[in-house]
């Protein structure tokens, strides 16, 4: 009736006679069949099972890796939380020490201002004493000249 390669045509079933094929295999459980075909089908199902097992195993391995990464991340975040808590505690202690030292720091600032003013006063005093010294030397020179003039006039 049809060619052997025609998959949509009518095929002969040993028990029922001609049938229409609706799939690529027409295996009936109680029909006698080709042992080679049975071996190939078993091999195909085994390889398909191996493939599916490999896919599921890979997925399981991915989930295990994610679980391990999550555990490592949890540990890392716990460590970071502990470090942050320690830093926070230390900062609070430093703020308290700074508050307790604040009056002394203000005194140091006042002393620094006083020292700066004193230094400016010392520079002014030094400049004034140099002007006085220059005036004194001028007066002394003038006095010496007058004295010499008087000596010369009296002689």
Indicate the overall shape. rod-shaped
Order of helices and strands: EEH
Largest sheet: spatial strand order: 1-2
Q: Give me the count of strands.
A: 2
Instruction: Please mark out the parts with pLDDT under 50 across 5 or more consecutive residues, or reply none.
Output: 1-13, 18-23
Sheet having the most strands: 2 strands, antiparallel
Portion in helices? over 70%
Mean pLDDT: 84
Radius of gyration: 56 Å
Number of helices: 1
User: Which range does the strand content fall in?
Assistant: 5-15%
Domains (count): 1
Keywords:
155 residues, mainly alpha, two-stranded antiparallel sheet, disordered N terminus
Structural description of this entry:
It contains 1 helix and 2 strands; from the N terminus they run ββα. The protein has one domain (36-148). A hairpin with a 3-residue loop joins strand 1 and strand 2. It has 155 residues and is mainly alpha-helical. A two-stranded antiparallel ribbon has the order 1-2.
Summarize the structure.
The chain has 155 residues and is mainly α. 77% of the residues lie in helices and 5% in strands.
Question: What are the SSEs and their pairings?
Answer:
Elements: E1 10-13, E2 17-20, H1 35-154
Antiparallel strand pairs: 1-2
């Amino acid at each position: 009736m049809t060619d052997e390669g025609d998959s949509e045509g009518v095929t002969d079933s040993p028990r029922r006679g001609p049938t229409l094929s609706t799939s690529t295999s027409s295996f009936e459980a109680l029909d006698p069949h080709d042992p080679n075909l049975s071996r190939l089908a078993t091999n195909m199902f085994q390889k398909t099972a191996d493939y599916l097992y490999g896919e599921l195993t890979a997925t399981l391995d991915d989930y295990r890796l994610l679980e391990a990464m999550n555990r490592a991340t949890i540990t890392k975040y716990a460590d970071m939380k502990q470090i942050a808590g320690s830093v926070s505690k230390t900062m609070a202690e430093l703020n308290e020490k700074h508050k307790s030292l604040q009056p002394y720091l203000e005194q140091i600032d006042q002393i620094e201002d006083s020292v700066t003013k004193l230094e400016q006063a010392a520079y002014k005093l030094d400049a004034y004493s140099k002007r006085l010294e220059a005036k004194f030397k001028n007066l002394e020179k003038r006095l010496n000249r007058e004295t010499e003039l008087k000596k010369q006039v009296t002689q």
